[in-house]
Amino acid sequence: MEKMKDVSKDVVYGKNSQAARLKKIVKQTRGSLVLGVVLLVLLFFASVGYAVVSQEQLESTMYLNQYRLGSKALTTAVQSYAVTGDRIYYEDYMRELNTDKNRDIAWAGLEANDIKDYEWEELRKIASLSDNLVPLEEEAMASVDAGDVVSATAFVFGEEYSETIQQINSLTDDVITRIQDRLDKSKNMLLILQIICAAAFLAGFIRLAVQCLKTITFSQTELLAPIIKVSDQMTLLAEGNLHADLDLAEDDSEVGNMVAAIRFMKDNMAAIIDEISYILEQMGQGNYIITVNQEYVGEYVKIKDSLNKIVEDMRGTVTTIQAVTSEIDSGAGQLAFAAEDLASACTGQATVVSDLMMLLSELTDSIEYNEKEAEEAVKISNLASSTLIVGAQKMKELRAAMRDINQCSEQIISVISAISDIGEEIDLLSLNASIESARAGEAGKGFAVVAEQVKKLAEASQNAVGQTSELIKRTVESVELGTRISREAAANMEEVQMGAEETTGRINAIVDKLKLEVESIAHINEGINNVAGIVDNNSATSEETAAVSEQQKAQVDSMVDLVSRFKV
User: Fold this and answer.
1) pLDDT tens track for 227-245
2) pTM for the complete prediction?
3) How far is CA 229 from CA 10, 398, 463, 493, in A?
4) What is the dihedral of CA 345, 346, 352, 358, to 10 degrees?
């Protein structure tokens, strides 16, 4: 028979192994997740920046208009007072100047905002022009108090006063326009950044979803399906079916190495069973000139040693029987010439020979029983040993892969939780922005639209997180299924272990029976010695036993023919 290859060498897994491919997918998924978090943070800051710039634009415009309204209130009050002389207008002027102080409030608000230096130059110029109107207004009010309405009107409706007012309005409009343009540019840049970040985040999320889908597909096709096929194959092996086809290819992956190991195990077990069947068949036919040529590995070496010992012991037993029958044949020939002297001795000799034949018959039955027991022991030992060698190692590798998948799933869940927290913060920010826009009234309508979009973005983020969490949950369920299968496979290994123990017990029983056979052979030798003594003591009575010795001679010849069939 062909020698079997040695599979005891260490297995080296290549880049196509399930572990390497799974690590690659996890690494890509982790990269996509980190990129998505970075883009989400950028989108958050861009949204906050856009809101801040919008708020600054709104406040700057409001403060500039408030400053202009304050100046206009002073101008209207002094002009009305100059024309009518009504003290109510004087009180309006003084209330605006000392109580309302719209210009001072607006100026303080502008100082709190991010106003550029060149814009401050324009604002200071406006303030200077407003201050230049104060002397004219004071002279106009003094003229009204003196009863000179014409002079008062000339001061506040004159060319100098009107040109200054017009110049202040023009400069205020220019400053408002410049600030609006500058902040509009900033808003546009932030809006572009928002769009870019949102698009990149969407692409990253799609990529992350694809990676998660790859992980699920890989787990189903590359792990779960092959494991089920391997489990079915191991079940068939446990049932003694060594010829069932395994629909998996051999490669440098973990599953591929499992397939190679199973096929080697099947071929090895089939070859060993064929050789043992052949040896037992030859032994049953009386041929003991046989040897065990097959290369046995691992625990199978014990079976080989036991077979060799059985063949060797049986060869010695048959050789001894042949030698004894040869001596009996020689003694029977001599007894033919001393028939009368051996009459009584031949009677005893016949009895001893009958006992010898009975012992030989018992020995033959014992050998046949041992043959059947050896066949059963070989079958059970083959199944138990092969499954213990390969199954235990593969179960350890399978459990390690399941632990890696479970740890990766826990890490992904923690990251998704962080994304969910960020989405909740964005939603809260959107709510606060909506409240502020409502407070601003008509001027905050545009900002309310932005706040609504931020809220929708937060809701979309929460929905995406929920879908991703569901995918991870399915992955965890697949991992739990793989773990349950591995536990069932471990239970099968325990059953195989029990089979191995049963085999050991049967082999021990065979050894005990062989010991009894040796004792039987010893009794045969003792009986033959007694026959020889009887022949020596009764040599004088050969005439009386002539007829009996002739019959004994025929029986011995038959026994010699029977023993000569054994090949030793």
Assistant:
1) 887 788 788 778 777 777 7
2) 0.38
3) 24, 14, 38, 17
4) -170
